[in-house]
Write a structure and sequence with these properties.
Blueprint (H helix, E strand, L loop, with lengths): L2 E5 L6 H13 L3 E5 L7 H6 L9 E4 L2 E4 L1 H11 L10 H16 L2 H6 L17 H21 L13 H15 L6 H12 L1 H12 L21
Parallel strand pairs: 1-2
Antiparallel strand pairs: 1-3, 3-4
Helix pairs in contact: 1-3, 1-7, 1-9, 4-6, 4-7
Bound molecules: glutathione.
Length: 230
């Protein structure tokens, strides 16, 4: 039975990007159901797949899995050869810790630098608040620590394999890039490696082809309405 991943629009849906890009990078076959978010009827469509009312949702036969970390764990168990978590116990502990830290944290970055792949990359100082810069510093430290301890064998956080921890931080790469956050050369090299991966390119190209515009009224969201000119 093939897997189905229910996701939101690729331009905006950072949570959807995580399992999608992990599955693509690992070569796990799946069908995609894309529900454009925050439009009339969007919520009802999501609710028809999961009572939690959020994407992503993984459907495997009679089993529905929601919450990004739970999906990644389910996939790691179902496809052990994909090595979504590192084989080494200490590396796996670190990968799980930093993935959970991402799942639970970095509220300022998420609020002020909402994922929008349409945004032409350039410094957007109005979004570089002290809290965002604090998030940036912590994430740079996480990436440097993973790479120094376990990443020597390749360009990703735990070496040659793009795994669950990389997937959890993939939308952060997008945010750092599109909002022009001031990153170190080491961080930039990691971002470039992620952005050059075929899975990233496939997601990015599909996001560029989208046209749905989010209908959202929060004050911090004008940047994400429509395809901005600059
Ligand atoms: N904690 C959830 C967050 C999921 C989430 O917030 N998804 C957003 C899209 S990125 C969503 O479904 N929004 C639609 C809605 O709330 O109606 C996870 O880890 O999957």
């Amino acid at each position: 039975m093939s897997l189905t991943l229910v996701i939101g629009n690729k331009n905006y849906s950072s949570w959807s990007m995580r399992p999608w890009i992990a599955m693509k990078a690992a070569g796990i076959p799946f069908e995609e159901v894309l529900i454009p978010l925050y439009l009339p009827g969007s919520k009802e469509r999501i609710l028809s797949y999961s009572p939690a009312g959020k994407v992503p949702i993984l459907i495997d036969g009679d089993t529905a899995v929601w919450e990004t970390l739970a999906i990644l764990d389910y996939l790691a168990e179902r496809f052990p050869d994909a090595k979504l978590w590192p084989a080494d116990r200490a590396a796996r502990a670190l990968a799980r810790s930093v993935a959970a830290e991402m799942h639970a944290g970095f509220a300022a970055l998420r609020q002020h630098c909402t994922m929008n792949l349409w945004l032409p990359p350039k410094p957007r100082p109005q979004t570089h608040t002290p809290e965002v810069l604090e998030n940036l510093a912590r994430i740079e430290a996480i990436w440097a620590d993973c790479r120094a301890r376990f990443g020597k064998g390749g360009p990703f956080l735990f070496g040659a394999t793009f795994g669950a921890a990389d997937a959890m931080y993939a939308p952060v790469v997008a945010r750092f890039h599109n909002y022009g956050l001031p990153v170190s050369a080491e961080t930039r090299a990691y971002m470039d490696a992620v952005m050059a991966s075929p899975a990233w390119r496939a997601w990015y190209d599909a996001a560029m082809a989208e046209t749905w515009v989010m209908q959202h009224n929060e004050p911090d969201w004008p940047l994400v309405r429509g395809k901005p000119a600059a």
